[in-house]
Amino acid sequence: MAVADEIVAAGSRCSLTRSVLREWAEAGTPRQREYLLGYLEAEVSSREASRRARLLRAAALPVSKTFDGYDWAPVSFPEGFGRPDLESLSFLERREDLVLMGDVGTGKTHMASALVQLACSEGVEARFFTASSLVARLRRAKAEGRLDRELAQVARARMVVVDELGYLPLDAEGRGSCSRWCPTATRDGRW
What we know:
Helices cover 56% and strands 5% of the residues.
């Protein structure tokens, strides 16, 4: 067991370099190479799983949702865009905005949450906000003199979901903080 502890200790002290990997891979027997490959693949898999979990925590989803069992019946898509485009997240590659509209209870929040979860599982940084929580966050940042940093942090995500936009009465201060980062906000606060 002492050797196993030494391996763990040595592994935690170093990052792997190509030259050392190549040297050890070429020097090993076929069985040793197979073992080394298995270890490295397990390490990569573990790191990817940790990254996806970290992205999902940072996304701040209120409830974890997927498209499994999602009712697509009430959903209509614009010309030239459909379910495959949505589920492939191709709109992110094209830097296109996605607006979900509909009556209360039609699944907009479920769809938005599932998209954020899907993005995180694909390694895409995403954030989920309600409009009121985002405005409150920006107001707090402004009051603390760190609005630019907060905006930069939000903008770092490739996918930003703002839910419950219609529920937020925007006063002059809230409208002012939104108009800096949201080009669709009009001067009188209408969206």
